[in-house]
Structure formats: C-alpha cells, structure tokens
Amino acid sequence: MARLVIKQRKSSKVKVVHVIRHGEAQHNVNEKFLLKHDTKLTKRGQRQAKSLHRLLPKLKPQAAVTSAVLRALQTTRGIGFCGPTVVVPEAREVGGWPANSPIESREALSNEMEAKFGRYDWSLVATGPGRRSSHWESTRQIKDRARRLSRWLERRSEESLLLVSHGEFLQHLTGDDYMDNCEVRSYSLNRGKWQRLRRVKCGV
C-alpha cells in the first residue's frame, strides 16, 4: 500500500479536521455484502451524503481527503465539495473483508473514475499496488497507519480539512468512540493528538 510522504511544512496554526464516516452502504444493512468488493451506498446513504452539503459553509474546508474505498468515494462526491480532493489509501477501513478493500489502482486511474468523481488527486493511489489487498492487519499495523495519516494531515498547509473514512479505522485514528453513518465530528489535531470540538449527527 502507498506510504504517505510528508513534503509540506507544518503550520503553526491550529489544524481542524472535520471527520466524516461514509454513508450507509450495502454491507451495513446486509452482511452478505462483506464478501463482495466495492459495496455501494444505499439510497439512504446517498441521501445522507447529500444532506451534508449544507454544512460546508460552516465547516469551511480548504481541501478534502477521502479513503480509496468506493463507499467513501461516493460519500465524498455526494457531499458536493468543489475544492481540491485527495484520495488516500491509508484512510481505508481495517479488516480483511473484501468489502473493505480499496478500488484497484488501475481502475482508479481510468477515465471512468474521472467521469464519476471528477479531477481528484489520485497520485497516492498510483504509487500503491496494482491489485487490491484483503489481508487482515494487526492492531499495531492499524495504529501505525493511523499515526502516518495523522502526521500527513497535520503537516498539510490547509487549516481546515474534510476527511471521509470508516468507522473502525476512525476509532484508531482519533481515539474516539464509533461513529454513525455520515456523522460529522470536528477535531483539533496537534502533535498527533486528536481533540473533539463538536459533532453533528446525520438526520437522514
């Protein structure tokens, strides 16, 4: 899997990350979809994602970061953020279920993906493996991945970011409890420490 390379200088200002768990997906309502790749948002999940567009003026994100798992990509698209969007394999869900695998890098770089998701920054996906991985991670591996992502987010130049990811991984990332589908939690991020500022439950 692609490793995050830190190039930006760390900002001296407070970093705020607005964390969003993806909308309701097929495997959330029927466990058989855990055995399938590229589970999609349900109709309800699509409505949940679209409902978050109204929050953008309050959150004022300067960029968005999304997992390379299809349901997170669909959620990011549904939110309707128009600024720079980076697809980060490190933000994927934990566990070896096929449903938790990122899309294949060959597919990610195809013209079809640009048609679906626009001009996202896929450069981190491009440096990853060509085939999707379904291996189970150890707790140590998950925590190491969470630390790498925290450092990368903190050292970006933006002061306000959206992060669309997954329930179990976000617990490891933030140290907080499990999130509902399309719940939004805003955190300050400083020296790898996440402090929750506020939360917004999805009303859909």
Automatic annotation (TrEMBL):
Protein's name according to its UniProt entry: Troponin C, isoform 1
InterPro entries reported in the protein's UniProt record: His_Pase_superF_clade-1, His_PPase_superfam, PG/BPGM_mutase_AS, PGM_Phosphatase
Taxonomy, superkingdom: Eukaryota
Lineage per the UniProt record: Eukaryota, Sar, Alveolata, Dinophyceae, Suessiales
PANTHER family xrefs: BROAD-SPECIFICITY PHOSPHATASE YOR283W-RELATED, HISTIDINE PHOSPHATASE FAMILY PROTEIN-RELATED
Organism from which the protein derives: Cladocopium goreaui
GO cellular-component term (any): cytoplasm
Signal peptide stretch: none
Residues annotated to bind substrate: R21, H22, G23, E24, A25, Q26, H27, N28, R71
Keywords: Glycolysis, Isomerase
SMART domains for this protein: PGAM
CDD domains: HP_PGM_like
GO MF term set: phosphatase activity
Pfam families reported in the protein's UniProt record: His_Phos_1
